[in-house]
Specification:
By secondary structure, the protein is α/β, with parallel strands linked by helices. It folds into two domains: 2-64 and 103-231 and 339-350, 3-Layer(aba) Sandwich (Alkaline Phosphatase, subunit A), CATH 3.40.720; 78-100 and 235-330, 2-Layer Sandwich (Gyrase A, domain 2), CATH 3.30.1360. The chain has 15 helices and 16 strands. A seven-stranded mixed beta sheet has the order 2-16-9-1-8-6-7, sandwiched between helices. It has a four-stranded antiparallel beta sheet with strand order 11-12-14-13. Strands 3-4-5 form a three-stranded antiparallel beta sheet, with no helix packed on it. The chain is globular.
Length: 359
């Protein structure tokens, strides 16, 4: 668990620990760009998406416990689905049953750091602008370091994001602390990768981060970086998207579908689960693997706990080809499913202290 690595490194760090939380970075790209770091592989969550993976990373609990089973899903008892980050809701018709909590908060690595007498600070203009249960659960216990960028339009250019991160983290590391702090910085490269992939501009940003991390390590800081998921190239097929839309409709389902990019699910009317699953298999063919929550559990992907069952759909499609009908057909790179490109991510260390084994 990354929480154990962070806790162990922080305990052994004489000056303090800086964690770069790099959104969207695959293991393969990190290995080619972080030339000053020691890198180990990590495996992302299922779904391999930010809401699920980051909350697991800071709490050490899986989606079967914290409940963030994707980006869009139903709250228990609701007749609609909710986008976990924006709070937007979607239903068939004018139905308003609100449901219970979207997720269950758990103690974070920030809570644990503060409990041990260490300051815990979080940096990230993108997160600073968010409100709602997910960001509250993610950053619980941390002191937010205000960013000047949070009040205006946020750049998605990766070099600009990296330069801002280096500048703001560097300023925090220059402060005096009564005890070695935990400094956690969110680095949003994900928006750029969705549109442009791992291009030259993205790699230039990673080199900036690598150079800065090595400099901080030379100054006595322990520095880690890890990611939530990678991305793979996609070419959504309009015909498959239209076929999905025909099934994701009131004639077949009691509410709109949910999911996260290359993993999507449907909520069939009671008694029609097998009919909808068979229709989806016929429609998507080799472009997806269609499973039930029990089959996800049997494959070790997502535990079929009451928390999960109350939130996920009864028919789940996992992308197996680039042509899978993702929710946003304008993206050229996407994630959420189980390929190595989406799920293998880096744990990079500069000036590493002894760390516990990963589990």
């Amino acid at each position: 668990m990354i929480t154990e690595v962070v806790a162990g490194t922080l305990r052994a760090a004489p000056r303090g620990l800086c964690v770069l939380a790099v959104d969207g970075l695959s293991l393969e790209v990190a290995e080619s760009a972080f030339g000053h770091a020691y890198i180990r592989p990590l495996r992302s969550t299922f779904p391999s998406t930010s809401t699920t993976a980051w909350l697991t990373a800071v709490t050490g609990t899986d989606p079967g416990v914290h409940g963030a089973v994707g980006m869009v899903y139903r709250a228990p008892g609701a007749d609609r689905v909710t986008h976990l980050v924006t709070g937007d809701t979607h239903a068939f018709g004018d139905r308003r049953a609100p449901g219970d909590a979207l997720l269950h908060a758990r103690p974070t690595l920030f809570d644990h750091a503060v409990a041990s007498g260490r300051p815990a600070l979080a940096i990230g203009a993108e997160l600073e602008r968010l409100t709602g249960p997910w960001v509250d659960a993610l950053l619980h216990g941390a002191r937010i370091v205000p960013s000047p960028a949070a009040t205006g339009p946020l750049a998605v250019d990766p070099v600009s994001v990296a330069e801002r991160t280096v500048r703001e983290v560097g300023a925090v590391l220059l402060r005096a602390y009564d005890a070695p702090p935990l400094v956690w910085a969110y680095v949003n490269l994900d928006d750029h990768i969705h549109r442009c992939g791992y291009d030259a501009r993205l790699r230039e940003a990673l080199l900036l981060l690598d150079t800065a991390a090595a400099r901080w390590a030379d100054a006595g800081w322990s520095v880690l970086a890890h990611a939530d998921h990678g991305q793979v190239e996609v070419t959504p097929d309009p015909a498959l998207a239209a076929a999905w839309a025909r099934l994701d409709a009131p004639a077949h389902c009691r509410m709109p579908g949910g999911g996260a990019g290359r993993v999507r699910w449907l909520h069939p009317h009671p008694g029609h689960e097998e009919t909808v699953a068979d229709a989806l298999r016929d429609t998507l063919g080799d472009h997806a693997l269609v499973l039930t929550p029990d089959e996800l559990h049997a494959r070790g992907l997502l535990p079929a706990t009451p928390v999960v069952r109350a939130r996920i759909g009864e028919v789940v499609a996992l992308a197996t080809s680039p042509h899978f009908p993702v929710p946003d057909p304008t993206v050229t790179w996407e994630h959420g499913s189980v390929s190595d490109g989406e799920t293998l991510v880096p744990l990079a260390a500069w000036n590493p202290a002894p760390q516990p084994a990963l589990h």
